[in-house]
Predict the structure.
Amino acid sequence: MTHSPNKKWFLLALLSFAGAMVYTFPFLRYSYYDTMKEALDVTHTQMGYMQMVNGVASTLGYIPGGWLADRYSPRKLLSLSLIATGLSGFYFATFPSFVGGLFLYGFWGVSTLIIFWAPFIKATRNLGPDSEQGRLFGFLEGGRGVFGFLIGMLTLYVFNRMGQGETGLMWLIIISAVFTIIAGLAIWFMFEDPPEEEASAPVFKYFWQALRTPQVWVIAFIIFCGYSLFATQSYITPYMTGPMGAVVAFGAFMGILRTYGLQAVGAPASGIIADRIGSPTKVIMAAFIIAAFCVTAFIFIPAEAKNLNLVTGVMIILGLCVFALRGNFYATFAESSIPKHMMGTAVGAACFIGYLPEAFTYPLVGHWLDTYPGLPGYQLLFKYMLGLAITGLVMGIILLRLNQNQTKELSNG
């Protein structure tokens, strides 16, 4: 579907708002880990198990989620996801038991990923030609950061006004639930769908075509490494408030800055660079290299209060790299010449592998932090992150060469 420039950017902003709100609850732990742990009365390991349930539910559903995106209306799927997720927030605000938390995280695996993610990505790609994909996905990710940061600062203000405890967290959740429902209603009334979105798609044909495409597999492993870095960097907040001795409010602000503020800068900037050099993959490779140096710095900087500013600076650079990765993940599909008609299925197949970290990262890191309390657990975490950055760089090199070989074959053929 062709859109006027103004309408295209309006729809992108609307998608960004929706993309910011729908993931508020599953990732609230990124900014309010300690308070949330106390409110739910759970251990580090149990916090990890709740996130694991979310990861398992979403991972098992990425492929059927891709099929849904290629068959049904993005407007209906995105609205359903947002409204259902928002309503669940009112139950979350009661701080249910560990079992109730498992149920919620499992539900969010369905509502925020199976129903939401593939339609979200496909709707974004359809907004513009292949030459604009870096910019579109970069600004999508950046817009999510802007909206997320603004809502995050509003809810942080409420959290502080209410005493930085369970009451503040309760009101934070309620406000977020209302905004999420508003995003769902906005999508329903303002978004448009091309008529052919309701048509039946040859599911298995697209699925096997995606599996036979080498780039889909390599992109999957790039997403795996990049998303693992995104997930594990969430533990920088308890690292600051734990071994480094920062106050909870500082850790919460750093979490919001890392999760949303850096997203607003790193993703669109990297998308513009990717379009100018004509290769999101090269941007991804550079981001993995810089991320490796940042994680190495975490390993060697002493965990002392006097080094808090230095660690904060390294965290900011790492966060910019992580969002440069996230801003270019899906632009690589266009760079690799994945057809639009099978975009949802290809995204689902790649995300099935790419987001496997959701199923094991949090319980794994939770186990490390419970088994090796204090600094030793975090040192183990940082070494794991370094391995991820190096592996991601290798995958980027492979993808670049696959695309170069494909271009040569087409030009010779």
User: Anything to note?
Assistant: The CA atoms of residues 336 and 403 lie 6 Å apart. Residues 197-201 have pLDDT under 50 and may be disordered.
